[in-house]
Amino acid sequence: MDSSVAKASGAVRTGMKRWQLSLIVIGIVIVLADTSSARVMPIRLEAMAQQADAIVIGHVERIRTIEGLPVAEVRVLRSLKGAGVSLTVWILAQGTWTCDISEAVTGETALWFLSSSTMDLYQLPPDKERLERLRTALQDRPLFFIAASGRGRMPIRRVDETDYADAWVGDSGESDIVFPHGLQLLPGPSLAEWGGHADAFRFVQRLLGMDDQPGDTPIRSIKLADLTAAIDQSLHQSDDSITSGAVRGNLFPLAVSHSSATQTQQGGEE
C-alpha cells in the first residue's frame, strides 16, 4: 500500500513538473511571439541621425546593475555627433516598452545612436521612477538611451579586413530602419553570433525545428565606412530635405572616397 502511494505520489510530482515546464515554454513562446510581431514605426537613417543627441563608435567595458537596471559603460572610440560627449558614456541596456530591443553585450564594439530622453508615453510609473533614481545615482554622468527603440545599436565585426555594422531591421517585410538607396545591405550574421536577445530567439528556433542560418535573421550587415559616410552626409542635410526625401522617396546618392573609408575603418578598431 505504501509502495503504491509512493509511486502515485512520484507520478503526480513528475506530472506537475512536466505541466509547469510546459507552462514556462508556452509563456516564453507567447512573449517572444508578441515581441517579434510588435512593430515600431519605420524610420529613415537620415532622420535617426538627425534626431540622435549623440552618435558614437564605442566599446562596452562592462555592464553594471544600478537601481536594479542594467547600465552599459561604453568607452568612446570615435564620435560622429555630439561635441560634448565624454570619453565614457552610460547607456541603459534594457528596453522601456514592448517593442524596445535595447541591450548591450560586454566586450562588443558597436555604432550607437543615442538619445538623452526616452518615450515617457510608454513607460509605466514604476519604471519612470526607477529611471529617475538611476539618473540620480549616476550623478553628473549623463544617461543615454539607444535610439529608435534599440535599433540604434549596431554591433561591429571584422570580416576579411573590412568592418561591418550589423543592423536589426526587422523580419516582417517592412524594414524598421529605411536605409538610403545605394547603401548595400548584406545578409546579416546568424542569431548565434548576435548575442543578447538572440539567445531567446534561438531557443524558439530550436523548439520549432528551425534552422539558424545567415540571412534568415532580421539582421543586415553594412560596410562601416559606407554607413558612417551616409550618416555624415545625413547630418549635413536640413530637416526639410529629409522630410522632402521621405515624401518623394528620393534619397541622397552614396559617395565614399578611399581616404574617408580608410579613416572610418581605423576608427572602428578597438
Q: What do you see in this structure?
A:
It is built from 8 helices and 11 strands. Strands 2-3-4-6-5 form a 5-stranded mixed beta barrel. The chain has a two-stranded parallel ribbon with strand order 1-9. It folds into 2 domains: 37 residues; 197 residues, no CATH class. The protein has 270 residues and is of the alpha+beta class. Helix 2 packs across helix 6 and helix 6 packs across helix 8. It is globular, with a radius of gyration of 22 Å. The C terminus is likely disordered.
Structure keywords:
2 domains, single chain, globular, alpha+beta, disordered C terminus, 38% helix, 25% strand
Shape: globular
Radius of gyration: 22 Å
Low-confidence stretches: 21-38, 241-270
Mean pLDDT: 73
DSSP strand count: 11
What is the topology, as strand order, of the major beta sheet?
2-3-4-6-5
Characterize the main sheet. Answer: 5 strands, mixed, barrel
Number of domains: 2
Helix count, DSSP H or I runs of 4 or more residues: 8
Give the CA-CA distance, first to last residue. Answer: 70 Å
Task: State which percent range the strand residues make up.
Answer: 15-25%
H/E element sequence: HEHEEEEHEEEEEHHEHHH
Class computed from helices, strands and strand pairing: alpha+beta
| Secondary structure: helix percent | 25-40%
